[in-house]
Amino acid sequence: MPDRSKQDVWTKPAAMAIPEGGFFKDKLEQGRYGPIFPKTPACYGFSIIAKIIPGREPVFYEYAKNIEKAVAGQPDVLAVLKLHYLRWNLFDINGETYFQYMGIFDTDFDKYTEDAVAIFAASGLNTVFENLEGFPKDWKTNAAAFIKFVRDHHRPSFLEYGEYPFVSADEIKKALQLKAAFSNMLDQMQ
Amino acid sequence: MLENEDIQHILLARTPALTGRYEFLSFRNAACGRAWLSAICEKAQSVAEVMASVEKDKRWVTLAFTWNGLRALGVDEGSLATFPEEFKQGMVARAEMLGDTGRNHPDNWVGGLARSDLHAIAILFARDATERSRCQVEHANLVARCEGVEVLSTLDLEATPPFDYAHDHFGYRDRLSQPVIEGTGEVPTPGTGAPLKPGEFILGYPDEDGPPANLPQPEILSRNGSYMAYRRLEEHVGKFRDFLREHGKTPAEQELIAAKLMGRWRSGAPLVLAPDKDDPALGADPHRNNDFNYKQMDPHGYAVPLGSHIRRMNPRDTAHNMNRRRMIRRGATYGPHLPEDAPEDGVERGIAAFVICASLIRQFEFAQNVWTNDRNFHELGNERDPIIGTHDGTLEFKIPKRPIRKKITGLPAFTTVKGGAYFFLPGIKALRHLATLNDVR
User: Fold this and answer.
1) What does the pLDDT look like over B148-168, one tens digit per residue?
2) If you average pLDDT over residues A81-102, what whole number do you get?
């Protein structure tokens, strides 16, 4: 783990090769729900890949509109997840449709997992997972089952790269705020 | 409606105890364990009993069991399997995630608390030392009658002077911020938040998310029960005072440093409401001493540093789903008081406390893993809880200040974990159920 107290880590692009299985065996860190996938130059993240229940494709497209609306209505709805980016894909293998959910975020998923489940439950963002095969029906009251599904379907990266490694979304937002404040100040001094 | 006659009192009632004793027990076979439990379980008072007679009672008893202890009493494997995974594993197996590493590692724990044959705890709170001695003898006689019940260790509890309010060995006022439970009739003091659903703390009731789910079976065993995380935390008073002297030139400066680490003056007065100068009257006033938030009143931590103890243990309006993370704290101090002018004497003293919650993984473990020991809590980068976090001298503590913040590097460990365990706190009927299980062996 790099020393994050060093202020200039972000200036040096970095890549990290990750062993098969997704963990560095000698640096394994335990989380509440099991070992934590390592932080890389591209921060924490997951790539969940699961088969959808046949015929459910339209639900996913409907879901996309719901998320768009939810975030527009309440921009901090996903704040607890400490995200940078999320990407959702549907793709097919041999005529069967699979779902991929990739996220890049600043905290290991275990840390806020119950909060994540709570967000999904409270904001009606749930539907899409319920259309995946094997998703636990009691997920709203069983965080352990939810996290097990996520872990079982996470395909860890074997390589990650960061152009500005290890920088958190909060730090980026703060830097942009500072830049804005500074330009504003310069404008006012004209 | 809370079934107060079936809930062990420790969950909901505070008792006027100045002393006490914990006894940690092991059962060599199920029959002897049940014989002990049959004899003692009538002494464990319910909430209803304590509410009715707390003024005249002199002692209060609480009984709880580890997962191995439930098995040792003869609970069948089918039932044992229905308990949550973290409780089954026990605190020792969860050590790394909890931050119990280095000096805090279970290998260094005392009192046999890291042993897998730790089965039960009998908690005694007593009004005075005479009553404690009487109970101690009575319990020793009971154990002597139950061949096969072994006392692994004991811990005597003592309040520290001055005795007119609860505080720890560092001098910080305690018992300031406790959640209030719906149905108890207790009115929350300002700043405490609305009463929480009982299921956050007591099994078998709706919680903040809805109806009860995934309860251990059979129902008679889990209903009105709860979980307790026990922590025996040594407080290094000499080191703490040296630190204050090192970082504060005057007594006033030293008090301010102590306050910044905690987020409250040692009197209990919160820095949000008394940022520059202690206000003991405010600290002692329950109607004012909890009445603050962070988002509006101190967003940048100029009063209460972002990494201070109370900001981590209860982030109030700066965390999500706070109602799912609350905990009830009980316990007491142990060891002799170290007078203000005395040098460190090397004698162990500290806090022996219980965190009570319906889900160890969601409440206690989350607080320990994220709030206490996440180095990057509030984007702090290289900090842990300055009072109870895991420290090896390489972390820092930042005190926001205008024009320039103060950064203390090489923060020492003011506390050391000397032991801990996960216990299940059964209801009164469940205690009787356990005492009368058929011996299947």
Assistant:
1) 999 999 999 999 999 999 999
2) 95
Question: Is B151 within 8 Å of chain A by CB?
Answer: no
Instruction: State pLDDT tens for residues B32-65.
Output: 999 999 999 999 999 999 999 999 999 999 999 9
Cα→Cα distances B138→B61, B124, B141, B145, Å: 13, 12, 5, 11
Q: CA–CA distance from A79 to each of A50, A106, B200, B326 (Å)?
A: 25, 11, 24, 20
**pTM higher than the cut 0.90:** yes
H/E element, A88? strand A83-93
Tell me whether residues B320 and A111 touch, CB distance under 8 A.
no
Show Cβ contacts of residue B215 under 8 Å, excluding neighbours closer than 6 positions.
B82, B203, B204, B222, B223
At position A81, the amino acid (one-letter code) is: L
Q: Which residues of A touch B362 (CB under 8 A)?
A: 114, 143
Question: Contact B97/A168, CB-based, under 8 Å?
Answer: no
Judge whether residue A122 has pLDDT over 90: no
Q: CA separation (Å) from B185 to A58, B133, B327, B427?
A: 50, 35, 18, 20
pLDDT of residue B170: 98
Does residue A169 have a pLDDT over 60?
Answer: yes
Measured between CA atoms, the residue of chain A closest to residue B319 is: A80
CB contact under 8 A, B370 and A112: yes
Q: Do A4 and B324 touch (CB under 8 A)?
A: no
Answer whether B85 touches A (CB < 8 Å): yes
d(CA B83, CA B361) in angstroms, rounded, equals 12
Residue B439 has pLDDT above 80, yes or no: no
Closest chain A C-alpha to B94 CA, distance in angstroms:
8
Please state whether B378 falls in left (phi above 0), alpha (psi between -120 and 50) or beta.
Answer: left
Cα–Cα distance measured from residue B342 to residue B266, given in angstroms and rounded to the nearest whole number: 19
Chain B residue with CA closest to A30: the answer is B97
Q: Where are the domains of chain A?
A: 13-188
Most A CBs within 10 Å: which of B208, B369, B411, as the mutation test of the A interface?
Answer: B369
Q: Which is nearest to A168 in space by CA: A108, A88, A101, A116?
A: A108
Is pLDDT of B79 > 90? yes
What tokens does B323 get?
């109602």
Residues 6+ apart with CB under 8 A from A62: A127
- Mark yes or no for CB contact B96/A30 under 8 Å: yes
Smallest CA–CA distance from A141 into chain B, residue: B213
Candidate from A79, A111, A138 with C-beta closest to B374: A111
Spatial CB neighbours of A153, under 8 Å, sequence gap ≥ 6:
A48, A49, A50, A132
Would you state the structure tokens that stand for residue B120, as one six-digit string? 């039960």
Q: Which two tokens stand for residue A19?
A: 């062993």
Q: Report ipTM (2 d.p.).
A: 0.87
Q: What is the rounded distance in angstroms from the CA atom of residue B411 to the CA atom of residue B308?
A: 13
Write the CA distances from A36 to A156, B155, B361, B389, B395, integer angstroms.
Answer: 11, 36, 15, 20, 22
B394 in contact with chain A, both atoms CB, cutoff 8 A: no
Of B96, B210, B362, the CB nearest to A143: B362
